[in-house]
Amino acid sequence: MGIEIITLLIVISLLALMAIGLPLGITTLTVSLATAVLYFGERAGFFVVAANVGEVLHKYELIAVPFFVFMANVLERSGIAKSMFDSMAIMGGRFRGSVGVQTTFVAVLLAAMSGIMGGEIVMLGLIALPQMMRLGYDRKLAIGIICAAGALATLIPPSVVLIIYGLAAQVSITKLFAASAVPGLILATLYVIYILVRVRLRPEMAPVYDVPETGLPFFQRLKYLKGIILPGILIGAVLGVIYSGVATVTEAAAIGAVGAVIVAGVRKELTWVMCRDAMRQTVLTVGSIIWLVIGAVSLIGIYNRIGGGDFLRGVLTSLDIGPIWVIVVMMLIVMVLGTFLEWIAIIFITVPIFAPVVVDLGFDPVWFGVLFAMNIQMYYLSPPFGPACFFLKSVAPKEVTLQEIFVAVLPFIALQAVGLFLVLAFPQLALWLPAMLD
Amino acid sequence: MKRLFALYADAMDNISVFVGQACSVLFFACIAISALEVVLRYGFDAPTLWSTELAMTLCASAWVLSVGYVTQRHRHISITMLELLVGPKVWHIFRLLQMVIATGAVIALSMALYHPATKVLARTEYSGTALNSMAPTYLKVLLLVGTIFYILQLLANIIRWVQGTEGDVSGGH
Fold first, then answer.
1. What's the pLDDT tens digit per position in A317-336?
2. Between residues 64 and 93 of chain B, which touch chain A (CB distance below 8 Å)?
3. Which member of A18, A218, A361, A390 has the greatest number of CB atoms within 10 A?
4. What's the whole-model pTM score?
């Protein structure tokens, strides 16, 4: 049987098993086991699967993921987001759309603290959405801001998406973190510009938020900055040790997790129950993630061994199009996969195939990693599965429907596409910072 | 017999929850060790030989052994879009199918992991690092134990499906 037929059978099997609701990790594991046994026979097939699966637990960088998840869980329970939001509200002053802009700033800070998207959207959904709705903000605008700004965590360092990409592509995670910072800020800037333009054109979309403190002179308002001092120190500590090369990403994540506990302690919110719940939630989150990784690593390992990787690389490099268009094709493949696969599985399945092609075409895999993360960010918002929309739905008032959320995020998906295009067309937007740090 | 199966499901649920929640402490220990390494390296110029391997081993233990807890709480990530199309009754049947396929796949995985695990038990493998720990031996056995744990919890979930005593099943199987 040719590799083309095997590839087709693998894809059909994956789709069929996923459709009946089999967990994604078990889906890829089942297909990899079946492929290995059918191709190599039981003994050799099992040997290959065991070798692939065993490798997963030896990936040191992977343990940064539970650390960041724990950090996010502690911060989520510590009320730090509320303090940041309140500080920003006063510091931001009086202008139309200020709460929307503040939400974007808080989202950037939260993203730089944890790298986990889900918790961030839940936090913003609980704090910023009721505030904007109470003030009479256009509901779709408010929803779109929260989903899009919350999804920045996939791109702004220390993004867990980039950690997983770095592992799969075997490129420096530190460089990826440096490369993604500017594109992340560009996207945040695009969102802010969009908000300001929209509310300028249609003032009724965002009434001016007026609290007495905003009327104080700027220097008197500085004392309200205290709400962002601790988060600022935490961000500085985590990103500082990563960028300076003082510690590995995993150690930086550990420092961040300890820092989050200290922050909660300083704020007098640290309790045993809070720590216990954060740890239990961490176990449940990463306990499901590891099976996704095991399944995906097993499948791609088998597929590469039977020549699938070479086959797909051959198909990509033989396309009669320019190198940049090959990158675009890869991005489109990721987008299509994003409609039915979890991002971790997408990364482990596609990146080992794509990354060598990217290098062969003369591109930097770090730059490709940033594009990849931006693409994953679009998938986070896109129907039918856009996880960001589901996260917001879980904490939004009942009258907010899922359809409304999906419509609300459309302009922001367009802005993400603009950002993706900018980084695609001007790789230096991503690559100048890693080059400078070198 | 029905009562015996129910007792098994209850016992397995309790064990999974207990082990899973105990595993959460391992993550905390892992965080503390990794942060301590940075402090020892830069604060006291005394880097350790053991922190990386110990952190990895603790983390791997928590990851693998929490599988029962994750399965008991139906927290595996899956796509449930078809539920809207086929309706709750058909989806209920699909749920059994999911669990049966998953059990078969994890049994096959445990068979694949059995040989490497028994091999390292007969002849210990070492990491070959400066610490030269037994981590490779431990991790191979750990993976096998994890798959057995997964199978046992899946069987408990199947019993609950058959007896109609499932709790919230909005997540994975």
1. 888 888 999 999 999 999 88
2. 64, 66-67, 69-70, 73, 75-83, 91
3. A18
4. 0.86
